[in-house]
């Protein structure tokens, strides 16, 4: 487990509505929001899932299942593409770190629902969505993304449906994360229930794991007319005791922002943080198999021969530095 941070961090969560394929406009509004966050003294601003390119949102509906690979590829951008570099330049210019989402075209030809956290100094940390529910053309990530920052805070990223599984947030905490960045998005009113579920579930993730959570919801409009222009989006910042510090569930204005100062002293007071060291991994090995009901228990409470839950877990600590020639 990493040490506790010692400095207060001011964070912002954006209520953001992007248009699918209108990347230039989405990027321009993202950069403007970063500049506004700098004027408010924000250290980290969190944008929704796939905010730069637009995407398919968090849904298992027909929208996700019917979208063609060619449509996704037309949206996709590389990690070193102009839209990402424009955000990285804004981060460098303002000193405000920013997390942004996009449909990523990987060098090997795979497509990912990705989230990039750009830090001042040129660092970029990339998370590939672990649970791209219903999106048959998107590859699944296979690494947890946990990294340290110059503020002394260790961050983790889980995109949308990654947060639906309690194990993912727990692994982030066990890897030392003190702040969970939780971007989310949907394609319209039919997916509003997923956003409401996130607002209820994330306080539980926070208190269970003794960490702050910053949640940013967005809407992806697939029309130029802006059919979802008046639709409700949500944002929330939650403390390690499960208390919502600030939220906005009624925001219909584009590019609204909520802000909170994260006090690291609250982490030590969280019941979840105090109980992490009391875990008994030998009892939980059955979780890794997915066949708990089928397995007889021995005297120790788990299936003989099952691998210990203390085993190694792949973790992403990859860091990408900007090519300064793009500045």
Automatic annotation (TrEMBL):
Pfam families: CN_hydrolase. Coiled coil: none annotated. The keyword Transmembrane helix does not apply. This is Nitrilase/cyanide hydratase and apolipoprotein N-acyltransferase. One of its GO terms (molecular function) is hydrolase activity, acting on carbon-nitrogen (but not peptide) bonds, in linear amides. Keywords: Hydrolase. It comes from the Bacteria. Residues 9-264 form the CN hydrolase domain. It comes from Paraburkholderia piptadeniae.
